Amino acid sequence: MKKALTAIQPSGFLHLGNYIGAIEPAVKLQTETKLTMFIADYHAITVPQKPEDLRRNILFAAATYLACGINPNRTTLFQQSRVPAHTELAWVLQCVARMGEVERMIQYKDKAVGKGESVSVGLFTYPILMAADILLYNTEIVPVGEDQKQHVELARDLAERFNKQFGDTFLIPEPQIRKDGARIMGLDDATKKMSKSATSAKNYISLTDEPDVVRKKIMTAVTDSSTEIRTDRNRPAITNLLTIFSAVTGRPIEAIEIAYLGKGYGEFKKDLAEAIVEYLTPLQAKLSLLLADETELKRILDDGAARANEVAEHKIRHVRKVIGAKL
Ligand code: ATP
Ligand code: LTN
């Protein structure tokens, strides 16, 4: 079985974009691959986090993964900061990475814009920590949203450079980007991705939004000028809504297009809202049950960390040896 790895930052609520772009593909991968999945708490602190919020968000992210169908017996599920080899390898790779290639990372440019000199150094070096996350586990496949592709490519470049310099140590990982839904767009602006850091809550559907909130957000979602319900590169808003409809129901987009031939946006949006509510209601029920038992959640994460440490320790010992740090 191939080895896959993915992670999500515990930076608050999760939205449908995170679900469709990252969580759902990971849930599917559990059956076809040996999956490693973690909560990237050390990535989250690249921007200021209140300690009590971070703690709550770590538990929330773990519970969300489980509620969405991650099976902790099958998948290694853990918290990044519990496996020290991540930060240790990140340091070694920082000494392999070059300023120029890290400066090219688009996400850093996006997130640092307008913040001047006050952004953390961690925000800049974070793709190198991500490379360490991936390379520690002999990862072959990294399922992520489109926005993370460049970071996976950096991980590949660093692995190749390290291997050339110190001998074969790391496998070269491949990003796996799903065709539809790799980039779910904002409901209030279909030219930008759905995002936690959006200024308006109308941009996204949180996985914890109540039914009435979902209905309101879908009914007020922007649409395009034409009335046809059909995907079209020049009509990002309706294309986005169709993608979401397909993702939450499992129906192919073409089948949905046929079902709404000659029908209006009003009816389409009403049905879409109900499909989302139907999808989210059982998920929310599972989530509250999981969150109510913190002891069990922590037990699952402890068990995952123990398994992850075994693999990661093995790799970092090898790294120390080949770079000459082992006496
Ligand atoms: P922010 O908006 O603050 O950058 P985010 O919403 O992108 O945060 P992340 O924690 O950075 O959330 O992403 C978690 C995972 O979800 C990543 O694999 C990312 O590619 C994916 N993802 C995030 N937003 C979307 C989106 N709009 N469409 C598809 N996938 C997404
Ligand atoms: N940077 C990713 C989260 C992440 C990740 C990883 C994803 C951290 N380490 C390793 C895949 C593999 C993000 O979603 N912002």
From TrEMBL:
Gene Ontology CC terms: cytosol
Pfam families given in the database record: tRNA-synt_1b (PF00579)
InterPro entries named in the record: aa-tRNA-synth_I_CS (IPR001412), aa-tRNA-synth_Ic (IPR002305), Rossmann-like_a/b/a_fold (IPR014729), Trp-tRNA-ligase (IPR002306), Trp-tRNA-ligase_bac-type (IPR024109), Trp-tRNA_synthetase (IPR050203)
Binding site for ATP: 9-11, 17-18, 145-147, 184, 193-197
PROSITE patterns recorded: AA_TRNA_LIGASE_I
Catalytic activity, EC: 6.1.1.2
Metal-binding is among the record's keywords: no
Assembly and interaction partners: Homodimer.
Described purpose of this protein according to its UniProt entry: Catalyzes the attachment of tryptophan to tRNA(Trp).
Protein name: Tryptophan--tRNA ligase
Organism: Candidatus Uhrbacteria bacterium RIFOXYB2_FULL_57_15
Gene name in the database record: trpS
